[in-house]
Amino acid sequence: MASKVIHAFYDDDDVLMLAVKKVKAAKHHIDEVYCPFPVHGLDKAMGLAPTRIAITSFMYGCVGLAVSILMMNYIMIEDWPQDIGGKPSFSYIENMPAFVPIMFELTVFFAAHLMVITFYLRSRLWPFKEAENPDVRTTDDHFLMEIEIHDNEQELKDLLMETGAVEINVSEKNSH
Amino acid sequence: MYTFSNRLKIASIILMIVGALGIIGGFVMAPGTIAEAKAMVASHDGGHGDAHETEAAQAPKENDHAVADTHGEEHDSSHDQHLLDQLKNRPWAALYVAAFFFMMISLGVLAFYAIQRAAQAGWSPLLFRVMEGITSYLVPGGIIVFVILLLSVLHMNHLFIWMDADVVADDALLQGKSGYLNPTFFLIRAAIFLAGWIGYREYSRKLSLAQDESDDNSNFKLNFRISAGFLVFYLISESIMSWDWIMSVEPHWFSTLFGWYIFASMFVSGITVIAMVTIYLKSKGHLPDVNNSHIHDLAKFMFGISIFWTYLWFSQFMLIWYSNIPEEVTYYITRIADYRLPFFGMVAMNFLFPVLLLMNSDYKRINWFVILTGIVILAGHYMDIFNAIMPSTVGKNWYIGIPEIGSVLFFAGLFIFWIFRALSTAPLQPKRNPFIEESRHFHY
To answer: Could you count the other beta carbons within 10 Å of the beta carbon of residue A162?
Structure first.
């Protein structure tokens, strides 16, 4: 379904933040904001739902911890027990201090890597993906606010000009 | 301007009185003679005595009768003297642990404060008066610790066995260390450290108050410079202090990261107390500009430094456990054999509890959650100092009883009394700190 959207450009993140707050105050829905760098507090100003990536991170950490315990138990205790430094590996719990660094590292490894992969999947980013940002300037020095038009083009244009936009375009958009 | 509320004042005085009774009770109950000491141990520890009897019964079978007997007697009498010393030490050790613990809190806050000053942090100036109030306890707390150390040097107790000339005479290792570990130099070091800490605290507080009335930023800049200099002095003196005042109760044993380990303990306890005092004052309607982002940041520090403490605790433990060298591993053998519950309980309180409770970002903003975790962290770090001092001074005759609880109550009362009295002497919000606007608008 094709729809008309308005693209407002800004050249400063503080101006953008104020503009987002004004547009929200005027009860318009902001589809998306494209930024060359992360803007602190923008997600709250846009009214986006809080991220759930912390919860996934905790779960991945738990998985990593479990994997490390099972792995060390198989490698060091069950499969090939050795006597290292006078501490024969016959019991996981008695040799546990030696395994703590591995348990820690794998917890961090799983949490970090799976969290990044989750983030890419959730953001629909993968290799050779065509860029979604509507204007190349948003990767350089401009910020772009995208608002869908529902027969209120002029009203939105006036509002956005007032908020300090440096350029306003109207274009067709194919939603995914 | 904060006024010290009567209810809190009375509560702190009651704590001091009850605590003082407990301390006196501890000294009165300590045995005076070997016979009393043996009776005390026999009355509440039957298993211990039984083990010795079977040992004694078996001994003659293995050896010639006469030799075994004299050996047994000698061993018994030295053992009994040792037991008496340990039981006599208990009220002293309880007093020392609690005195050190509360001194350590204010010293940890002083380090945190100096870091904020030296970093010119923008978020924390609203909390400077709270920190200055807590560091005011360094004066009485430091002096009390110094007096206890002085009494140890005067042989009023046996907390530090290297102070005993008879022990050193029989001990080649202690003789080798006597150039450093001797009572005179020990006291000189303690005096220098306390003078440096208290001197910085008083001078920085003076500059902080002067900045409110001044019309330029010269006091602020001078405070920045002396804080940076103080941090250098602090890191060296704190490390040496931890060897002197804690590690030397076990004079044969040493650990190279002990200074950091004690630092982590005092840092997290100090930050916890800043958060607790701030939340208390805010609940009474003071500190109107402190918002939940400030509490969030303090809780993040509580969370992070708890993990840092665990990292150091484990680094020390694992290397010694793994290498298993007799003179090193004895430290953990005694703790795991005789102090199993406090030793592992402390790790749960200082690591598992804060990690699980404060992991969620939202929980760091809930005041009662921070207070609850803070209480556990403080109790855990008291146990940390307890585990550091007690095994070498009272051995397996430890117990959390009247002397220990009395000492904690007494110093808690004194601590509360002193810091809230200091808080009531100046406005709780600095007026002319150049970063005060940033701190007021601090928003996470």
So the answer is: 11
Q: How many helices (H) and strands (E) does chain A have?
A: 5, 6
pLDDT tens track for A24-43: 998 888 989 999 999 988 98
Cα–Cα nearest to A147, from A51, A49, A46: A46
Specify the 3-state DSSP secondary structure of A143: strand
Matching residue, tokens 């642990």: B97
* Cβ pair A97:B323 closer than 8 A: no
Give the closest residue to B17 by CA, choosing from B27, B9, B29: B9
CA distances (Å), B338 to each of A5, A96, B53, B398, B399, in order? Answer: 73, 21, 20, 9, 11
Neighbours of B180 (CB within 10 A): 13
Instruction: Show the domain range for B253.
Output: 6-30+63-440
Judge whether B235 lies within some domain. yes
Note the ipTM here.
0.78
Element at A168 (helix H, strand E): strand A167-174
Judge: B323–A85 Cβ closer than 8 Å, yes or no.
yes
Measuring CA to CA, how many Å separate B267 from each of B105, B158, B264, B273?
Answer: 7, 29, 5, 10
Q: Which residues of B221-237 are buried (b: 16+ CB within 10 A; e: fewer)?
A: eebbebbeebbebbeeb
Q: Is residue B44 part of a domain?
A: no
Q: What is the pTM of this model?
A: 0.86
The Cα–Cα gap between A122 and A53 comes to 10
All residues of chain B having their beta carbon less than 8 Å from the beta carbon of residue A58 are 359
Residue in chain B closest to A87 (alpha carbons) equals B322
**Which residue's entry shows tokens 């855990």?**
B380
* Average pLDDT for B266-290: 95
Both tokens of B129, joined, read 């008066």
Distance (Å, whole) CA B198 – CA B192: 10
Taking a C-beta distance cutoff of 8 angstroms, is the pair B275, B296 a contact? no
- Two tokens, residue B443: 């928003």
Return the structure tokens found at A61.
Answer: 């950490």
Interface check for B361 against chain A (CB to CB < 8 A): the answer is yes
Domain ranges of chain A: 2-49+132-174, 53-122
Whole-number Cα distances in Å, B60 to B35, B69, B78, B308, B322: 25, 8, 19, 53, 38
Work out the pLDDT band at B75, boundaries 50, 70, 90. low
Domain A2-49+132-174 has CATH 3.30.70: yes
